[in-house]
Every structure is written in C-alpha cells, then in structure tokens.
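Aim 2 progress update. The chain analyzed this quarter is reproduced below.
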Amino acid sequence: MIDIVKGTAILKELSSVTIMVGGVGFLVNVSSRENEEIRLNEEITLFTKMVVREDDISIYGFLSKRERAIFELLTTVSGIGPRVAMGILGMYGEEELRKYILSSDVKSLTKAPGVGKKTAERMILELKDKIVKIFGDYIPDVKENITVASDDAIDALVGLGFSAIEAKNALANVDPNLSIDDKIKFALKNIGR
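Predicted structure tokens:
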C-alpha cells in the first residue's frame, strides 16, 4: 500500500493532482477543498489511501492524517464509495463533518453531493461511535469566515501535521502583533482544548 506521497505538484485538475516523485508522476485524487490549498511547482506531502477495485487502482490523498481517517470511516458506510466520500470532504472539512455527525445534524449532511436523508442517517448511526473512539466526543467549534494573521504560522502548523483548515481555526483571533513562535503556541493551546 502507498501510505505517503511526497514530491512536487506538477499538474492540477478539479479533483486530482499529479505529484512527481523520483521521475514518476502519481495521479492522486484529492477533495476540491484541499485542491485549493495545493500550489503547483511546490513540494507537497499527501497522506494516501490506495483503493484497489476489479477494474481500477486509485490513490486518494489528504493533507492530514485526520482527513484520511475520516475518509476511511466514510467509505465503511453502505452506499458511500471513495468518490462520494471525496465529494463530502470537498464540501466539509474533517472538523465540520465530525461536528455534523456528532450532533446528529441530518439536514447539514444532506447538503453534501450524493448524500440523501437515509445516507445521512446511516452515517450518523454507523460513524458516531467510531468517531468518538478515534477523535473523542468533543464537538468541534467550526469557525467560518476566519481572518488569519500569519501565513508563516499556518505553514508551520501544517508542517507539524495539521491541515490548513485546522491551522486557520486554531489561529482565529490571534493577536497579529505576536511573534510567529507565540502564534504557534497560541494555536497549539487552541488545538489542545
């Protein structure tokens, strides 16, 4: 199994990116949300899941292990394959999706592509306990329209293994006059709550 792909992003499509690794280009399927964060001609590390089917071998990539874990959980639900799971993650990030599942928010879940009421109810029923077991029962306080003070602080947190969305949420309301080190400390305290 291919667990991590690290290389240079050389081509982006709507739902995939080609990563050049040692002279080989890997086509990696990504969510539209994470695709926006990937920059061409820059080195990137994606945590991957290889899906082997009778007529296809595909690689799905994620900017964080947590995002990959949610993808793997989603694909255990009857009626949700890898493509539908990526559509869901394209609409909602990992934290937002956990929030809706843990709070049994069927209405919000049905807004995702390929998710009807029955599928949303199945997601809640089948994933709630698994999410609590893996991530805990804390319901994330997902912030919207966040203005972040420092791209360097976000990059540092991403380098530590957090997704860009997690980093932005953790840096919400940070004092812009703080040093980068203090911003990172502030963010880590927020993430630890």
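The chain has three domains: 4-62, 66-135, 151-192. Residues 143-149 have pLDDT under 50 and may be disordered. These observations will guide the mutagenesis experiments scheduled for the next reporting period.
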